[in-house]
Design goal:
By secondary structure, the protein is α/β, with parallel strands linked by helices. The structure holds cytidine-5'-triphosphate.
């Protein structure tokens, strides 16, 4: 799986850098071609000579070596993947802000290939809010992150923050190259977030949906090589992952409009919390208070999932969400048949950690063939990956 793959290994200043010669050996044994770029700080932990001997290639550290310019642009273009291992706290922070003060950063910022990083740092640094937000930012910029592990740290403390072991990094890469492009050529339509149904120029009917689940799904599909069209209601989150085309809408009617070219898609996942009703009329001026109560006539919005279900062709896969508070199974099954979906992802508000606003979700999958698969409570990103894998299984 790694045979012939071009891997650009970026080593930064962390004690875990001492494991990189083993990593390079393992990658080369698997048939990969490896080039190494390192930060000046990394040279305190691992020798440039060892790495250049193993890779049979010069190890680059500076933008200029004597009279030669290191062509950082071509390095990123040469590689099938850039692997940053170990990723230090300092380089992570530079990646988050785009600070370009060495060859590693120039290479990272100009790389056109996918980037994956294996962070390594002391546990307290790992948990610091600055590190958390830097990790989130680089993830949003499209850098994939390997898990850190728990164990003995350079400080002598036991905790989280150890770099993934070289063998784990190699299996991550093998998995990546096996599954990365599995959805290449597939087009995916995703709806996300709430809709806002205007009442007057300053008010609307909306809901608490954050859009996190739909955005996580869009990113998980893009990571598998799909071309994603994300139709999003008003949310405060963003995605900058390549491969995602974003259409921002406000109302259910606009969301439906943005899904009209459904026949072009192979997969559609309706994760938006679409308003079921919208005001019959939108007041052109602000509605002034008058009596003690106020009734507003509402009318049904178009059911986008239901509409796609009617249009669906045999080769297309349609997935819907159901957020329930009671009789969850019964309602989920009813949605599956009423909306002609292939899969309904049911969240129950009775499950702690599921639903709007939170970063986690717990779901049960209801399939057309009668299968019912309960999933663990997990982050929305992890659930998105599980859902994408379940959808891929349906395609195979
Ligand atoms: N959905 C949609 N268009 C709507 C309403 C919902 O596409 N106008 C989609 C959602 O994105 C979700 C699924 O349908 O995938 C939810 O089904 P829905 O019947 O709207 O759920 P509820 O509003 O919870 O239904 P009910 O009122 O029957 O509980």
């Amino acid at each position: 799986m790694l045979s012939g793959k071009k891997i650009l290994l970026v080593i930064t200043g962390s004690i875990a850098a001492y494991k990189t010669p083993i990593l390079v050996r393992l990658l080369i044994k698997k048939g990969a071609e490896v080039k190494v770029v390192m930060t000046p700080a990394a040279m305190d932990f691992v020798s440039r000579l060892t790495l250049s001997t193993l890779t049979k290639s010069p190890v680059l550290v500076n933008l200029f070596d004597e009279e030669t310019w290191a062509n950082h642009v071509m390095l990123g273009r040469w590689a099938d993947i850039m692997l940053i291992a170990p990723l230090s706290c300092n380089t992570l922070s530079k990646m988050a802000t785009g600070q370009c003060d060495n060859l590693v950063m120039a290479t990272y910022l100009s790389a056109t290939c996918p980037v994956v990083a294996a962070p390594a740092m002391d546990e307290d640094m790992w948990h610091h809010p600055a590190t958390r937000s830097n990790l989130e930012l680089v993830r949003k910029h499209g850098c994939q992150l390997m898990e850190v592990s728990y164990g003995e740290l350079a400080s002598g403390l036991i905790g989280q923050g150890r770099m993934a072991e070289p063998e784990e990094i190699v299996s991550w890469l093998e998995n990546y190259f096996t599954s990365a492009q599995i959805l290449a050529g597939k087009k995916v339509l995703i709806t996300a977030g709430p809709t806002y149904e205007p009442l007057d120029p300053v008010r609307f009917i909306g809901n608490y949906s954050s859009g996190k689940m739909g955005y996580a799904l869009a990113e998980a599909f893009a990571a598998k090589g799909a071309a994603v069209h994300l139709v999003s209601g008003p949310v405060s989150i963003k995605t900058e992952v390549p491969g995602i085309q974003l259409t921002s809408v406000q109302t259910a009617a606009e969301m439906l409009e943005a899904c009209q070219n459904y026949k072009e898609y192979d997969i559609a996942v309706m994760a938006a919390a679409v308003a079921d009703y919208t005001p019959v009329t939108v007041a052109s001026e602000k509605i002034k208070k008058t009596g003690d109560d106020l009734s507003l006539p509402l009318k049904r919005t178009a059911d986008i999932l239901g509409y796609l279900g009617k249009e669906k062709r045999d080769h297309q896969l349609l997935v819907g969400f159901a957020l329930e508070t009671t009789n969850e199974k019964e309602y989920a099954r009813k949605k599956l048949t009423d909306k002609k979906a292939d899969l309904i992802v049911m969240n129950s508000l009775r499950d702690e950690g599921a639903g709007f606003g939170v970063d986690t979700n717990k779901a049960t999958l209801f399939y057309k063939d009668g299968r019912e698969v309960p999933l663990e409570l997990q982050t929305k990103q992890a659930l998105a990956k599980t859902l994408v894998d379940s959808i891929i299984d349906l395609l195979l």
